[in-house]
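YM 10:42: RagB/SusD family nutrient uptake outer membrane protein sequence, as discussed on the call
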Amino acid sequence: MMNKKNKIYSAVSLFLTLGFLSACVNKLDVVPSDKIGIDRIINKNTIRGFRNNIYDNLDKDFTTNYNGQLIETYTDDAFRAGTGTPFDWHNGLLSLAQNFFAGDLWNQYWMGVRKANLALEYLPQSTAPKDLITDKNLAQWIDEAKVVRVWYHFELIKNFGAVPFIDKAYSSDFNGWAQLKRPTYDEISTRLVSELDEVIAAGNLLLRNQTNSDYDKINLAVAYALKSKILLYNASLLNNPTGDKSKWKRAADAAKEAIAAIVPEYSLLPLSQYGELFNQTVSVLNKEVIFRSSVNGEDVMNNQNGVDLKGIGSATQSSNAGAVPTQELVDCFELLDGSFPVASYNNADHTSVTLNPGYSEAPGANPYAGRDARLAYDVVFNGTKYGKYKGIPGGAAELKVFTYNGKSFTGFNNSPTSQEDADRRRSATGYYSRKYRTAAYWGSTAGGTDANKIYFRLAEVYLNLAEANCEVEDFDGAIAALDIIRLRAGQPAISTVPGFTKTKDFLMKRIRNERRVELCFEGQRFYDQRRWKIIDKTNDAVTGMKITSSNGSDNGIFSYQRVKIDVPRNATTAKYLILPLPIEEARRLPGIGQPNAWR
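YM 10:58: structure's back
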């Protein structure tokens, strides 16, 4: 199925290569792998390896498969300076020859499928003593492998379009690659859902793992949430061009089923604990988080992306400022009455806008006051306040961040080590991402907090339900699901916001906006833009806010000017809706081949 998979892998040699065997069995490496008995492969010392290694190929990091970038930098939610992959992407340079991150994704997920299939083949053959590994253990592990196998397939189809369902680890002499055919998106989605339905019906998995020792293992709530997401994508315009409402009905039913099954075992955290979703020790059994990465991405969110947030406040930026939010994302955070700050963009650059009543960017105004509370949780803006934290020498009571032009340093340092040091960390948009980061990042490259990528949380399932209900014109159901998210954030019920109408157009606009706000910087926007087929309307321009102080200090009168981020924005054609396969893989798999947009 890919380069790595096309190499000769016997079941045993793959285990050795991937480190499946225990240290005890590794002593036998001198023995030819095809001579090791099956009893040695599936005994108590090695059988747990089959379970553990099915998780290896999940996207455990924020940037691993995207050329070291946050995936948001390939959308209209964030800007990453420099001439790296995001610049090439937005410049329209994606091609079969320059395929950016497709090869990494393709290889990683197919290898994950293979590991899951090997687990499903050998776990049932366990020879481990029943007092050490019970039949209940094995049934649970088998169902974990089934769910993870579905998950890997879903990652493949949401990136590359429909691919066949592979339910066995083919041997080295398999010669049927050319006969594999690309199914329809509905066919593969239906198959994936049937696999999840079997796991749900079996009931071998707990809805919620009960101890912090198994926080990194699949539970039944993941199966429900994944089913909801698969059917949402299957019903979306990209994969449902005729607008078949029966697909949306299936998506709505799946989201309802998920919520009915997992609530109240899972529940939304109150707004006062919202930040804990993103900066909590991974082993804590968070009530809202269904599943998150076991890998702490603290260093990636800080060091690897160059997000050393000490120097701020410039209209220019180099890559060391990291992925910074765009003004377009900030504009999505409502005023407290539920209206948007911006009524319309009046030019192609988004630098001329019509503002709604109650919002001002005039000198002396504060555009960030009186806004949806999630803005302060998700975005660092001019005047952002943090509470006391241990990283400030002398125990200062508060850290306040300014991002106006010319402000070269913040936190407890009085001056940068050099002007160059300050310049290279400044944001071009006037903002920094706050989600997955705490105040400690402003005073230290160490950070001192956990940042584990969230795969599924309850809020997303409610938003899935709102969207699917709206598409089948169950407007009351859509409103009810949407309001659960809005009210948690402290925003008014949607029916009370200015200009409300109980229509599909109005509600869908607000549901999509709510999804963009609630799930920002969680890896969702890239795929939402594609399944909704809106990249030609949303990726054309991004802006920032240039802020100046009347006296060049923190107590001056601030003025605001929207500025265009002057980089090409050409990733708006149909080809950018789906990734092409690596060239050699398309040749090896003619029955699958390239997606239609790339043929």
